[in-house]
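User: Can you predict the 3D structure for this chain?
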Amino acid sequence: MNQKQLKDAYKNTFATKEGRMVLEDLIRISNQSRISQDAPNPYSCVYQIAQQALIKRVTNMLEIPESNFQHNLLEGTNNDRRN
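Assistant: Here is the predicted structure, written as structure tokens:
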């Protein structure tokens, strides 16, 4: 599978209403953990960074600009809810 085919697979998966719902949930849970300055846990930090890297990978494959990918995602989901 080449890069274009892989990007198309990502786009086909996340272009659906369900795909956007899953991506929205992944974004939500990847930003839930907060790292405490009082009791820093290096494993927690690595885990959170890995979650965020996964979200970045998906949004890069979807070619959604990082600055507005959440807005675009939510807008698409809202459009589906209206239909």
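The longest helix spans residues 42-61. The chain is about 70% helix and 0% strand.
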